[in-house]
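Following the same procedure, the fold was encoded as tokens, giving this record:
***
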Amino acid sequence: MERAWLFSLIPLVIGVGQLSFGVYGLRRASAIRRTGVTVRGRIVRHDVNRSDEGATFVHPVAAWTTLDGRACEYPSRFGRGSLGGRLGVGTTVSVRYDPENPRRFAILGWDTEVVDKLFTVVGSVLTGGTLVVLLVRIIAF
């Protein structure tokens, strides 16, 4: 077998990474949906992050009080290029959080599972496709 098969490991590693990220996000969202508590919160500020390529991502920071009286203030897991007129500072939002770990939360209507599903699908395709190619190469030799 040639060394060329080693290049097949690149999409395999990328696929497994994306699949892992997607499954983690979907499991997290599912847990919040099953056991989470929904409360009213408000947007107190926006965290702005810039990537190495120069892209800007805005993460709204939500503040709320848990049912047991703890004050929480955390940035959203997902950032977007712009808010599109939504979620300005002072906006009232619904927040669903994990009562055992309030850092795990979702702003209803903002945090979606689309990104996690996309990573899961792309990761599955890359992983499955690469494994098929590797198996065919192994059997052919």
Notes: Residues 19 and 121 are 7 Å apart (CA to CA). The radius of gyration is 20 Å. The chain has a mean pLDDT of 88. The first helix runs from residue 9 to 35.
